[in-house]
Amino acid sequence: MVNLAEEILRNADTRPEHIAMWSGGNSLSYRELREEVFRTRAVLTGLGAGEGSVLGFGMRDTRQVTIAMLAAWHMGATCNLLDFRLKDEDLQAAVKMFKHTLIVTDRPANLPDGIGMIAQDWTARLAASAPTPAPAANPRAPAMAAVTSGTTGTPAGFETTHEALFARSNSWEGSRISEAYEHYLCMSPIAFGATFGWITNVLRAGGTITCFPPVARPSDVFDVVARQGITGTMMVPTVLRDLIAHARQTGRRLRNERGPIWLVTTGAAITEQELRDVHDLLSPRIIQIYAASPVGPICTMFTEEMDERMKTVGTPARGVIVEIVDENGRAQPQGTIGRIRVLTPGRATNMRGRDGNSGGDHFDGDWYYPGDLGVFDGSGYLTLAGRATEVIIRGGVNVYPQEIEATVLTFAGVREAAAVGFPDKRAGEEIAVFAVTEDGITAESLLAQCRTAFPADKRPSRAVIVSSMPLNANGKIVRGRLRRQLMEARADAK
Known about the structure:
Elements: H1 4-9, H2 11-14, E1 19-23, E2 26-29, H3 30-46, E3 54-58, H4 62-74, E4 78-81, H5 88-98, E5 102-105, E6 116-118, H6 119-127, E7 144-147, E8 157-160, H7 162-170, H8 174-177, E9 183-186, H9 193-204, E10 208-211, H10 218-228, E11 232-235, H11 237-250, E12 255-256, E13 259-260, E14 262-265, H12 272-282, E15 285-292, E16 296-302, H13 306-309, E17 315-316, E18 321-325, E19 338-343, E20 349-352, E21 362-364, E22 367-369, E23 372-376, E24 382-387, E25 392-394, E26 397-399, H14 401-408, E27 414-424, E28 428-437, H15 443-453, E29 462-465, H16 479-493
Helix pairs in contact: 3-4, 11-12
């Protein structure tokens, strides 16, 4: 089996002076990247790490973390990328799960003796060390260890092999998006699965990565795309919305000297109107990705497919099998909503803290269940119908939040919508819709539109106007918070 770091560092032989990374105005060629990986590997060895060690990196500096990750892979260790914003209890839970040899963080953390180090000390050790060339280890240990965010159920740990990461990278239709790999703008923390995946793909392809602050102003994003000759970037919907607003005000587009860049959307559902806005106001070259951390890409959709199928998430990625099944694992006919399951050589292994009864994503044999519901159309395009745990059962009828939301989003003045269920003695559950709206839209006027838009068994009985939706780091709406908000308001009213 080939070591993934070894393959990436081969670029130091074939294109040594080509820029691998830009960060803070400083460049790093592939030759220099290899030197820094050897330097970092020497430091890790001096700290007692080796083949099979689990090494955690939770720093803000994407370039520094990328080098550390490659060094861990090169020596045959397992890398655990940690969000730099994690609290001590989250870090402690990760240590309990994976038994780290070392964790490097930006700030001091309350960790077991001997395994914690702050980034300042880490940087000092690197400065005092020399790059020591060494052969790449045979990757017997997993390449990655990770913990899910918990938005799909109780947080779970899993491991991913070098072989599985190769399979995920190969699932992309590389010939169609090779230009996106030439110069990639990284705006999200590398601890996010999608960000890590794109960084790996770009470095495998010998491209360039420009690291950019995740909280940059929209105008700065447009500036760096034009100035640096960016060819591709990936953004979650929350960032896209800010860029759309800026583009609408200024008329600017995400383009370099050659034309529009590739824009990848992932992390959370994007509405049909938002997708049209991305196409019309930011760039017509779009890749929409439906993915999950334990398996990587599940479905993809490219610009030319979107006119007729903007409500879908595309077709299965290359080498990935997607099925719709019932609760007993029986395949469902086309047009029937059911549980999504995925079979892919990019699957993670050793998932822990999760099973099929936990209400979240899980493995059952070789199949991965992301916890989502979906339906295939006659052309093999998948439409998501919500989370299996979020189906609203009203009077014995299954109501899928996304079908409610899709209709409410067509109402004039509604910018965002989320539907949740809440207990009701007569119907079992009732439907509430939360909405972010323009001025002048009231809960009463929203319910009035619902009365004409929905049949009685799917009609929301409550409407709540909010200034913003509660979102997780990936831009996904946290429906549990909305449900709690509603229940607390009902309790206060009694």
